[in-house]
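To illustrate the input format used throughout this study, we show a single complete record. The first block contains the structure-token representation of the backbone; no residue identities are included at this stage. The design step must infer an amino acid for every position from geometry alone.
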């Protein structure tokens, strides 16, 4: 259950981002043998509004939230496979799912934006404490809890925070640290055995003196996230001088753009390779690596559209896990991952080129692999749509000016109309296929959102173009 990267060995965890597209528990249970096979030792589970909050917090639970019985069943199955479940609950930034509600809107740092909590209002800590108590008590066998704290875009801007910083002569970094420490101490009061993790990005601008004086090293362990191939933040000398344990986070999905439907496998491989280099370069500097998390985002934030669905990203996850367990990316590891997902050609990465549909043995592939292929088909059609509306033929002969003046070539418009009708037919088939496949994994609301966002949007535009072409052709001789 370890990452083999040069001289370092680190436990592997997989992040489940359940906001917006929570798979059915039956599907999540199907994934556990796959994760166990790849030596995954833990799941970082970001519930957001899918946790079955009770009492005064019940308003936070979405209609598609899991039931208590479902989660107990899943956590029990995880224990059977020796996979720890570490809950992630946002307690500072990215807390839109709570602050969007009128009952908690007064706790916003900026009244216009529900993404950041005010750390100075007494009721803020009341809310966070209650959330932590319910999450921590439910996960009473977890080794750690992640309290978020990334991208606190609104910090120290409200009158309460400005007054507090003025009275205590605090910087924004000190205001941030005070809230994080308070939350972490409360976690320890609920369960002294819990390790407390946070995302690191709000600490990246801090020097060693600021980090030392914050006393964060006594309460939390930072998790450094980086999803690119280059441009790593220059933080290792500072972090290693302060924090005894540092965690790492790459990505297997949710890092290819907010509207992506399949991961960019070349970039995902490059991301793992970048992390391998960083770990090896800092093997003697960092005292302890807490764990290596493969993140899998479902939305860029609570209000964003759905990006890659979990089944569509499993081949990426398999590829990334294979790389991590073998310590590097080679033709051999590529071939192993390709074969495991039913792509024996050993060229899984070429799927990302989106030119033709791959030939996949679904009987030897990952759970719900048909949804992966469905997403590839969607991505190919999306590219075809963009290529069509950006083509010389469409832009040069069906411009709004041409239409307004009636300067149209019937031959060209007939040709364009044929292309549009073919795309409409292909998108209709895609939607029908999606309607058959998605309900096996997701509830009806998620299925509809996916098809509206990634299928019907293009279909509506194409039909509008088709109707316009048929209309103008009546007057072209």
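Output of the design step:
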């Amino acid at each position: 259950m370890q990452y083999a990267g040069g001289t370092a060995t680190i436990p592997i965890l997989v992040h489940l981002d359940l906001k917006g597209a929570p798979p059915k528990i039956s599907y999540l249970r199907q994934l556990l043998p796959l994760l166990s096979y790849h030596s995954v030792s833990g799941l970082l589970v970001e519930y957001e509004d899918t946790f079955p909050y009770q009492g005064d917090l019940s308003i936070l639970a979405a209609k598609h939230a899991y039931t208590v019985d479902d989660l107990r069943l899943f956590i029990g199955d995880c224990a059977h496979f020796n996979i720890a479940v570490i809950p992630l609950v946002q307690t500072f930034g990215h807390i839109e799912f709570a602050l969007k509600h009128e009952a908690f809107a007064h706790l916003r740092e900026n009244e216009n934006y529900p993404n950041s909590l005010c750390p100075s209002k007494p009721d803020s800590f009341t809310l966070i404490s209650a959330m932590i108590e319910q999450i921590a008590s439910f996960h009473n066998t977890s080794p750690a809890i992640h309290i978020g704290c990334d991208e606190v875009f609104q910090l120290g801007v409200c009158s309460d925070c400005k007054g507090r910083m003025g009275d205590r002569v605090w910087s924004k970094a000190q205001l941030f640290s005070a809230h994080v420490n308070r939350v972490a101490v409360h976690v320890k009061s609920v369960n002294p055995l819990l390790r407390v993790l946070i995302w690191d990005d709000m600490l990246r601008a801090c020097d060693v003196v600021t980090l030392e004086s914050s006393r964060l090293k006594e309460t939390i362990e930072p998790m450094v996230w980086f999803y690119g191939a280059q441009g790593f933040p220059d933080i290792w000398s500072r972090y290693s001088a302060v924090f005894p344990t540092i965690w790492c986070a790459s990505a297997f999905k949710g890092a290819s753009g907010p509207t992506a439907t399949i991961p960019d496998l070349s970039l995902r491989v490059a991301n793992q390779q970048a992390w391998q280099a960083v770990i090896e370069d800092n093997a003697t500097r960092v005292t302890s690596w807490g764990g290596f998390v493969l993140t899998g985002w479902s939305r860029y934030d609570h209000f964003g559209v759905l990006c890659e669905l979990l089944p569509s990203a499993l081949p990426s996850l398999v590829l990334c896990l294979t790389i991590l367990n073998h310590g590097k990316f080679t033709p051999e590891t590529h071939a192993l991952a390709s074969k495991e997902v039913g792509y024996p050609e050993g060229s899984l990465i070429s799927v990302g080129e989106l030119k033709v549909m791959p030939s996949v043995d679904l009987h030897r592939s990952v759970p719900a692999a048909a949804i992966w292929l469905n997403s590839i088909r969607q991505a190919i059609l999306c590219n075809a749509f963009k290529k069509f509306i950006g083509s010389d033929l469409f832009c040069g002969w069906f411009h709004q000016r041409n239409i307004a003046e009636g300067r149209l070539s019937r031959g060209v418009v007939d040709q364009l109309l044929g292309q549009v009708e073919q795309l409409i037919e292909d998108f209709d088939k895609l939607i029908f296929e999606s309607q058959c496949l998605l309900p096996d994994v997701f509830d009806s609301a998620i299925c509809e959102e996916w098809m509206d966002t990634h299928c019907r949007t293009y279909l509506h535009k194409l039909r509008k173009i088709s109707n316009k072409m048929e209309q103008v052709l009546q007057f072209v001789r």
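Structural context for interpreting the output: The CA atoms of residues 351 and 358 lie 7 Å apart. DSSP finds 16 helices and eleven strands in the chain.
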